[in-house]
């Protein structure tokens, strides 16, 4: 079978190319973690009142001159995205960025969200993947925000009174 020889050579060539790609792209990711790219989240405030707007910043540090980075950030349930910050979003509460540059620049992405109407402690989460990483990594930095009830006080007129009249 003349085609069997061609198929066999193709299989060996594919295995060889896969091995080279593994050595060039994935093994460096197993080295010194100080040399890997990273994404770090910061919040404009860690404690807000219900309905407040918060700016979320994702700082990209490209320590290996990666040519691409994929970022996904997930906002807590109840929060509303008010500015997507250039991300693409196909799923509610999830923001995604794909930066394909030569190399990816160190920079900060930002988006804004509105706090929910319910008080509580909420968690942001996210992950990213860059060219020289074998697996996704969890976004570092701040992830917890405390939402408290409104600080606005209302006064009522006329009512209430104090305790008992004399009589």
Describe the model.
Residues 19-33 and 152-167 have low confidence and may be disordered. The protein is mostly beta strands and 167 residues long. 15% of the residues lie in helices and 38% in strands. The strands form three sheets. The chain has a five-stranded mixed β-sheet with strand order 5-7-3-1-11, with no helix packed on it. The chain has two domains: 1-30; 32-148, Immunoglobulin-like, CATH 2.60.40.740. The protein starts with a helix and ends in a 19-residue tail after the last strand. It contains one helix and twelve strands, in the order H-E-E-E-E-E-E-E-E-E-E-E-E.
The strands making up the biggest β-sheet line up spatially as 5-7-3-1-11
The helix/strand class is: mainly beta
What is the number of beta strands?
A: 12
CATH class of the largest domain: Mainly Beta
Largest sheet: 5 strands, mixed
Terminal CA distance reads 116 Å
CATH topology term of the largest domain: Immunoglobulin-like
The shape, in one word, is elongated
Instruction: Report the radius of gyration as a whole number of Å.
Output: 26 Å
Beta-strand residue percentage: 35-45%
Low-confidence stretches: 19-33, 152-167
Order of helices and strands: HEEEEEEEEEEEE
Individual helix count: 1
Topology record:
Layout: H1 2-26, E1 38-43, E2 47-49, E3 53-61, E4 68-74, E5 80-83, E6 94-100, E7 107-114, E8 120-123, E9 125-130, E10 137-138, E11 140-141, E12 144-148
Parallel strand pairs: 1-11, 2-12
Antiparallel strand pairs: 1-3, 3-7, 4-6, 4-9, 5-7, 8-12, 9-10
């Amino acid at each position: 079978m003349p085609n069997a020889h061609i198929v066999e050579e193709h299989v060996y060539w594919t295995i060889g190319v896969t091995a080279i790609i593994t050595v060039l792209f994935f093994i460096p990711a197993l080295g010194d973690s100080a040399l890997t790219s990273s994404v770090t989240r910061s919040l404009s405030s860690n404690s807000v009142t219900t309905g407040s707007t918060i700016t979320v910043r994702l700082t990209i540090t490209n320590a290996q001159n990666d040519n691409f980075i994929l970022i996904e950030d997930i906002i807590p349930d109840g929060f509303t995205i008010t500015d997507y910050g250039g991300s693409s979003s196909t799923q509610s509460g999830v923001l995604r960025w794909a930066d394909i540059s030569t190399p990816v620049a160190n920079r900060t992405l930002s988006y804004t969200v509105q706090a929910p109407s319910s008080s509580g402690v909420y968690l942001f989460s996210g992950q990213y993947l860059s060219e020289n990483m074998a697996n996704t990594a969890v976004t570092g930095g701040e992830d917890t925000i405390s939402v408290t009830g409104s600080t606005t006080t209302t006064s009522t007129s006329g009512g209430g009174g104090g305790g008992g009249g004399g009589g």
